Every structure is written in structure tokens, then in C-alpha cells.
Amino acid sequence: MARTIGLDLYWNGPMRDDDTHTQISLIEKSVDRGVVGVIVSPIQTLPLRTPIRKVLDQGIPVVVIDTELGIPPGPKLSYVLNDENIGGRIAARRVGLILQGKGSIAIVGIRPELKSNTLRERSFESTLSSEFPGIHVAVRRLGLSSVPQEQHNAEGLLTGSQSLDAIVALSLAATRGTYYALAEFAKVQTIKLVGFDQDLLPPIRDGGIDSVVVQNTFEIGRTAMNLMNREIQGGSGSEASVAPVLLTRDNLDSAEMRQIENMSWWSSE
Amino acid sequence: MTPALTTRTRSAALLAAAILGVMVIAAISYEAFVPQRQIRHAMISLDKQDSWQAFGGTWRFADGVMTNNSDERGAKLMTGSVDWSNYSVEADVFLLGQYGDAGLIIRGNDEETGVDAYHGYMAGLRDLDNTLMMGRADYGWREYAAKTISPRVDAEQWYHLKFLAFECDFAVSATAQKGETTTIAIRDPGCIKSGRFGLKSYNTGAQWRNVEVRPATQSDLEAMIGKQQPQLAVPTRLPSGMEAAPYDRFLEPIERDLRAHRSAVNTQAISSLRLLSPEVPSSVTVQGVVTLTSPMLYIQDSTGGLAIDSSRPHAPLQIGDEVEASGDADLRDFSSELRNADIHVLWSHTPVSPVAVAASQAATGSFDAQYVEVQGRLEEKHDDGHGTEILTLEDESQSFIALVTGLGRSPHLEALKEKSKLRLRGICTVDSRYTHDLTAFALLLPSAGDIEVLEGPPWWNSAHILEVAGGVLLLALASVTGFYFVERLRMQSVLDERQRLAHEMHDTLAQSFAGLGFQLAAIREDVRDGIDIMPQLEQAQEMVRNSHEEARRSISALRPELLESAGLLSTLEMCARRIVSQSTSVEVKTASEGTVQSLPLGVSDTLLRIGYEAITNAIRHARCSRLTISLLYGSATVELIVEDDGVGFVISSDSAGFGIRGMHKRADNISAQFRIDSAPGRGTSVHVLAPIPPSLARAIARRWLVQLKVRKAQNEFTGI
């Protein structure tokens, strides 16, 4: 996409998911290199506000992915957001489908400090209560930062007194950690797992994870590049939402999923 | 035309040959004198940290092994030359964790900190899908090939990797300790031609050893892959595990990973160990974060800390690792220890923050085995001779020691000064193996970086007090000596002035009084003889008037403030005009030449007195109609000229009257040259040429001026 509109890409990112300092530093270095635009997916929302404002003050177009910084879209600023409302709704309907409208579930990986996480949780619970009143949320667990911690968390859940029919995990770490715990206790067949953002595909094919709501990263990237091009050409910034999709064992090999998961976009051909 | 053309062609050919020759010689010299640009078959010294450049990661070398303990995405450690093209790198590689990869980079360029932030080729082992993989990074990753390793890729096991680049062909092979060799080869037509090599890990820590680099040839490539041509490099389109079948191999590392992080159900709080029976041996399982690894392993949970006997083999531990430890609880008087412990890491990067406590709190034993922050004043430091630095500190009533192990010569520690106030972070222990029952507690510090200097030692120590006393004594001695020296100078100056005044009075007033005495004696004789005494009386009156005038002039000359306020030439002019107004009408002119300089008081005073004398003589005795007073300033001299157009006189030894002798003597006192030019009817001119003694500032300025002139002359010479 970038090549077709005549732009060279400098791609880099911090080596840790919590390294906001490096991400800010990379943005500043990019500006020093004289880039004509910045596309950034902030690790954290608030610390990126000032650095992005500084980039905008220099007249450099910015496209922010996946989170709103609180700065309204303007002539040089656009947002491309994963539609968390749709994501929550998709997950709720999947749970409703596999439990056939009744049962007891747990929600894990709740991160109140992340707006996107809160949105997907509210959308999930709202859809669930309105469309599947027979499904009861028995347990809610706050999210932790790593897969092993989430596994430990889920182990406690599985050894507790609650009887669960399904678990909804709202983050990558929570999905994978819960899957590990289910596999560890050999409960993958009895407790269904619906996750978010998880990128390990074999358990989905194997059925260990029922389904994962995945971001359409291909479409997000293409939209971001389009918005950047428009801003560079003098157009106004805007906010775009991209709907996530449900990845299941049945559609893993579909054309749509292959487009999301394949890596051909990086090819130099 | 033809001969000229031939000559020109021959000249051009000769010139081209000469240029080519120079280029060849330059190229040979370049290669010969820049050895780092040549690839030689060599084991790479992993311990020479200066030759390696890290991009992320936490790299540490020990026992012949380079370790990156960080699970960052894409930590790199680079070395070699960007000019290296055809070469191979071999190394043993050891993955420390799951879901990552580790390997080697060749032909690396433009490296930065960041994920895949470099241009180059990377090959390595990935345990997620049990593969040997190879690809190219251009600030983004393009994977060209991934081949399943036999039997599989296990973390914490050594594999031998060989990665070769020849022209645009690349080959990599991996050999497990008891397995087969797996080889991949690709051809990248638009390849990166040259670059450095390096070590890289992604999403896991890793270790490398026996790193070896050597030049590569076609035959080396064929030795790895045979005669067949490598397949063309085409990026794989699907991530690992996307393929429909077979996928079982992808589940195996997942299952290993989940087993690795599986935690025991019956863990108990560390503080609860104190409730166990000291009589019955108890096997316990605890969970906590590693707070120290050396000299003893310590972990901590929310209830307390625990020392662990970690003599059993276990994976390398880092501070911040959450671990589960099962072993025998050993209950002691003030603390507990876990013996024969089996340890496995649950997850990493959850460091514990220290609790700030006073030394008196730490001394109670309530914080035993916990990570604390304590302040104290450094009393003493010494090395125990086995690589442990021991600091003795004090805070209020408590003394304690802090131990820092395995640092070698730490500049940070060496810079610590006794009596400095320090803040230390470490494990508080009441274990007598460390306190030796001399102090209530000891601190085991993870590193020298856990010592922070809050303030330096107080300035008022005994050494400084002695230094100050000595300094004050010396100053007093110097002051007394200086005072006496100045006083002596002052006395000498007073004596000199007295002597000068005596000479002055002798030459002027005494002479006048003597003359007046003689005159009065003559009057007395004339009165006795009945001779008319009026002429003598008039003469006596004239003598008194002259003496009075002389005294006035001397007093005026003793008033330096006049000199300071009006300047030498103006003062002389004022003097001349005053005398002129009293007697005849004489035209007075003044002139100044050269750059006016400030004169030392002695010089200006002498010139003033000589000038007075000369002016008085000219007006009173020479009957002149015009008087010129001139001051000529040279670079190191000043000349006073008093010139009149009066009657003049014959200069002879008898003509030393009119104060000429006094003028001469005054000139001698300041090492000036004194000269009188006169002849009857041709006027008189008095010349005094006095040297100006150089002051310090004047000497510096003169030297600077000389240097400036020299430089200017040099510049003019070189044409700048």
C-alpha cells in the first residue's frame, strides 16, 4: 500500500510491550529523520498524548491505531480503531450459541485501565444479558500482565467451587493463560473458551480454544495508510472503525482469515 | 595531427596506468593496514565487551558463555565489519525460554534498538514450531524458510548452528546434541552484499558459546548443501501453525510451556513457615519473586522473605522471576531456610520494590530475608580477598554490614568515601553466616548499583582540621612577614624622602639663608662704617623674596595631588604662567608627542621639579620672550624639554649655578639622562630623558604586542 502511493516505510517498535519510553523515543527519532507522517499504535494511552501533540505541532500528520488519545481528530490527526462494541457482541453471540442460551460463565482478563478492554467487556455483558438471559456471569477476574500469571489465575478459577460452562478471556494473555490451565486440568472439552486477540493458531484448529475474536489487522493497516495518504495530500483527519472477526476452527482456512493472517503484505514483490 | 594525437594518447594511457597503480597500492595498503576489515578464521572473544555493540537485551559474559537474560523482542549483539561479505559464523546456541527464537545474524547493517530494526539475514532455532528458520530483516521480517528440527527444539539444550553467506547464497545448518543435522539454503538475488555478524534472540533469553567466524568459499557452501542450487528466496505467506496439516508438532511446545508454568496447588505463604513444628521435618512448597541470586538465593512473597539452598540444578534465575520452590523447611532462631529445594520459574519480570526501613527496624529481625532500603553512614570498607566487598555502616545506634559479591574491581565502590551517607537496597538478613554475630543484621546487595550516595563525608574531619590549622599558621606567618617587609619598605621610603628633603633644603633654603646672613653681616659693617645701606637692604629684601618663592615652589612640588589631577604637562604650564604673570610677559607654549602614558610617581615628581627649576631660570634669568615646554613619550622613555629664546649662557664647569647641579642630581636619581644646550644669545634648552620602568600589565601588553607583530609578519610571509 505504502509503496503504491510512493512512500518509503520505516518500521520499528519497542522490544517490550510495556516499554512506553522506547516507543516515545522512536517517534521522536522518526521526526528527527524528517518523516512526512507517523502511524503509531500506542502501548499506553496517556503517556503518548504529549509526544503526539508535539508531532502535530510540527505539522506532521499522525494516524493513531487502536486507542483514542483524547485529542480530537483534526486536519493532521486520524484514528483507526478496532470496533470493540462489535467485538463484544460477537463474543457474546458465540457464547450464546455454544451454550445454547444457558449456563454459567467466567470473564477473565478485565483491564479497567484500558478503554478498549472496558468497551469490549461492557458490550459483551450488555449483549449477553439482553440476548441470552439464561447465561449467568458467575466470576469476574481482573487481568494480569503475562501469560504465566494468567495461567496461575485460571488455575485458581478451575480449582474453585464454581461450576463453569465457558470462560471468556478479554485479552491475549488471558486467553492463552486460560487455555493453558484448561489443558493442564484436561477441561478443554468441558469448559469452552472464547478469547480475544490470541495468535496461537494450533489450539484453535485442535479445538482447545473454541474461538478468538481477532482484530482485522490487515484492514486496520490499509485504512491507516489511506488516512495517512489523505492527510499528506492536505485532507482532513477522521476516525475510522474496523470490525473484528471471529476466528474458529471452521473458518481458519477461509479466504477472509488467510487475508488477515498471511504475511504477503511484507513481500517486496 | 597524428603524432600529436599519438603523444596525447600515450600520455593519457600513462596517466591512467599511474592512477590505476596508485589505486592498487592504496587498496593493498588499505587491506594490509586495516586488519579489522579482513575476515580471519578466528574464535571470537565473547568477553571483549568493547568490540561488541548491544541493541537491547541484558548481556552478560561468564564461564565462556554469553547470555542474554532478557526476553525482549529482538535483542541484538553485533560485532565485525560492515565490509565483510563471504563468511560463515558458527556457534552453540541455547534457548532459555519458550515461544521465542535465538540464533545468528550475518551481513548486518544499520542496526538500531527495536524489533527487527536492522538490515541483514538471521537464522535461528524456534521452539514454537520446532524449526530451524532463516529470513531477512529490513526493519521488518521476511521469513524465507522454516524446516522442522529432528528430534525437536528444546529450551535449555545446546544446538550447534552454522550460518554461511557466499555471494547471494545463504546456508544454515543446525545440529542437536544427539540428533541429525538440518540444513536450509536459499538464494536471494537482490541480496545484501556485506555486513557484520551478531547474536540475536527474540521473545526469550538465550546463550551462545564457541563463536567462530571464517571466510567462506563456494566449496564451503557446497560442503553444506551439495552441488544443487539453493531455492530462490520467497517470503513465506503464512505464519507458523497456519498450515492445515500436520499441526500436532505445534501443540507439543505449547504443552511443554503450559507444564513449565503450571503451579502447585498447595503452596503456602512464606510467613506461615514459622508456624511449622521445629521438631518434625516439613516439606513445603512456596511461591515468590526472586530478590537475590548470589551469594544466596532469596525469594519473597507478600508475607515475607525466604533463603533457599539452591544447590540442586535449576534453570538460570533472574531477579524478578516468579518461582515455585519445594523443599525441606529449616527453621532457625531468627530466620528460616528452604533446603534441598526444587525450583521452577513460573514467569519473569515481576520485580519486588524494596521496603524503606530504619536500621533500628531492620535490627529487630522483622524484615529478615526481605528486600529493604536502609540508610547509613559508611564507616569502613574492605575486600575480603574472595571478591566480596564488605562495607561497615552505622545509623544512629545500630551498626550493620553490607556485602557486595562477585563484582571484581567496581569503580563505583572504589569511589565511595568513608563517612559518606549512603542509601542501600538489598536483602536484610540476620543469618550469623553474614553478621558473624557482630551486628544485628547484614545487607546482601544484588549489585554495586544498589548503593546510592546521599551526601559525601562531612568536611570537618580530623585531616581537614589539621590542614586548616596548618594553613592558618602559614597564613599568619606570611602576614607577619609581609607586614614587617612592608613596614620596612615604608620606613625606607620615609628615610629616602627625608634625605631628599634635606638635600632640597640644603640646596635651596639653607643656601638662601646663608646668603641672607652674609648680606646682613655686610649691612652691619656698612652701618658701623656709616655707609649707605639702602642698596644692601634692597638686595637683602630681594633675597628674602627669592627664598620665599623658592620655598613656595618646593612646597608646590611636594603636592602630588596637583600632578594627579592636572597631569605633568599642565602642572608645568600652570607653574610657568603663574611666574610669568608675576614678572614679565612671556609667551608660554606646551607640546606633547607620542602616546601619553601613566608615569611612576618618582619619575613624574622628578620631572616636575626639574621642570620648575628650568622654567624659573628661563623666566627669571634668561629674559626670554617665548618659553616652550614639551613632553615626548616613547615606548619606554619620556623626555622633558624646557626651551627658551633668552640670553643663554656659556656652559662650563662654573655654570653649575641656577640649580643646574640639583637638576642633574635629581635626574641621576631616576636614571635619567640630563643635558643642557645653551649659548650666549641663542637661548637655552633643558633635556631630561627618563626611562619608564615596565609595570606587570605593561610588560604583558608589550609581550602580546610583540607576538602580534611576529604573527602578522609570519602571515604576511605565508601570504594568508
Explain this structure.
The complex is a heterodimer of chains A (269) and B (720). By secondary structure, chain A is of the alpha/beta class. In chain A, 40% of the residues lie in helices and 19% in strands. Chain A has helices at residues 20-33, 49-57, 84-98, 115-131, 147-158, 172-184, 202-206, 217-232, 255-261; strands at residues 38-40, 62-65, 77-82, 103-110, 135-142, 166-169, 192-196, 211-214, 239-242, 245-248. A 6-stranded mixed beta sheet of chain A has the order 5-4-6-7-8-10, with helices on both faces. Chain A has a 4-stranded parallel beta sheet with strand order 1-2-3-9, sandwiched between helices. In chain A, helix 2 (49-57) links the parallel strand 1 and strand 2. In chain A, helix 5 crosses helix 6. Chain B is an alpha+beta fold. Chain B folds into 6 domains: 1-33; 43-255, Sandwich (Jelly Rolls), CATH 2.60.120; 270-347, Nucleic acid-binding proteins (OB fold (Dihydrolipoamide Acetyltransferase, E2P)), CATH 2.40.50; 355-455, OB fold (Dihydrolipoamide Acetyltransferase, E2P); 460-558; 567-720, Heat Shock Protein 90. In chain B, the strands form 5 sheets. In chain B, strands 1, 3, 4, 6, 11, 12, 13, 15 and 16 form a 9-stranded mixed beta sheet that branches. In chain B, strands 2-5-14-7-8-9-10 form a 7-stranded antiparallel beta sheet, with no helix packed on it. In chain B, strand 30 (626-633) and strand 31 form a beta hairpin. The relative contact order of chain B is 0.05. The A-B interface holds A 9-16, 22, 26, 146-149, 151-152, 155, 159, 179-181, 183-184, 199-203, 205-206, 252-253, 258, 261-264, 266-268 and B 56, 72-75, 112-117, 139-143, 190, 234-239, 241-242, 244, 247, 250-251, 254-255, 257-259, 261-263, 265, 322, 346-350.
